Amino acid sequence: MASVLGLVAGCASSRTIPMSVQSDPLGAYVVMKYKGDDNAESDWIFLGNTPLTTQRRFHKDHLTSNQILVLRLLKDGYLEQTKEWRGEELDEIRKDDGRLFWNPKLVPSN
């Protein structure tokens, strides 16, 4: 019984959010990190290349107003593209849209 309660408690402490990241052109690297209002930042995490469809599990602490999810796209010959979402925005997106979607047009660097 204790193990079942542990599983339920573990599920309540996190949320799974489907994510889709496209780019024009395709083939950009997608990386993510967290940062807080206190300027603390996590390391960059490589998620894959566009087009990217994945599901990420976010701890409930990452879905608060003082936490920010940062996604960055990188592709040779193009400027980096970065987008940020506050934690409560991610939770609203999960509830309203069912997934996080981002589709930037990459800008050539020359």
Describe the structure.
It is a single chain. This protein is an alpha+beta fold and 110 residues long. Helix content is 19%, strand content 42%. The chain has helices spanning 2-12, 87-96, and strands spanning 14-21, 29-36, 45-49, 52-59, 67-74, 81-86, 100-102. A four-stranded antiparallel beta sheet has the order 3-2-5-6. The protein is globular, with a radius of gyration of 16 Å.
Low-pLDDT residue intervals, each spanning 5 or more residues: 1-10
Order of helices and strands: HEEEEEEHE
Total beta strand runs: 7
Kindly provide the radius of gyration, computed on alpha-carbon positions and rounded to a whole number of angstroms. Answer: 16 Å
Mean pLDDT: 87
List the helices and strands and how they pair.
Elements: H1 2-12, E1 14-21, E2 29-36, E3 45-49, E4 52-59, E5 67-74, E6 81-86, H2 87-96, E7 100-102
Parallel strand pairs: 1-7
Antiparallel strand pairs: 1-4, 2-3, 2-5, 5-6
Keywords:
4-stranded antiparallel β-sheet; 110 residues; disordered N terminus; alpha+beta; 3-stranded mixed β-sheet; single chain
